[in-house]
Amino acid sequence: MRIRGIGWHLRWLCAVAVLLDAAGCGRPQGGALEVELLARAPERGNWSPRTIELKRGREVTLVIRNVDIVTHGFYLPALGLSVSEIKAGDVTRLSFTPKVVGEFPFYCAMWCSDYHMHMRGTLIVR
Fold first, then answer.
1. Residue 47 is assigned to a structural domain of this protein
2. CATH number of residue 93's parent domain
3. How many domains are contained in the chain?
4. How far apart are CA 95 and CA 59, in angstroms?
5. What is the pLDDT of residues 45-100, one digit of tens each?
6. Which domain holds residue 121?
7. Is 99 contained in some domain?
8. How far is Cα 104 from Cα 85, in angstroms, rounded to an integer?
9. Fewest CB atoms within 10 A around its CB: which of 42, 75, 109, 117?
């Protein structure tokens, strides 16, 4: 027995599934968010992105990827977050839930170049 038109229906169902996934349907609302943060010495690009915006009370995992040729660190003193050493090519995951609204600077915690003091960014919690 052959079912006619099944190909069209299958394509339609796949398209609907893709649209629902893109809209976040089927995922727990307010689940953990992942934010990738690239580390490069200031003269090679600095933190990317330089500004990160988050929602208060929503769990986040910073995926800090050192794409540079030198060691970096991560320090966000206002929220008590730090990673002392992220070697060239390494990836570090840092999970937390921001509980305070505000703008908080973060820095490189390891001397990385003559422009090390310029390696900074801002975390904004709304």
1. yes
2. 2.60.40.420
3. 1
4. 7
5. 899 999 999 999 999 999 999 999 999 999 999 999 999 999 999 999 999 999 99
6. 30-125
7. yes
8. 21
9. 117
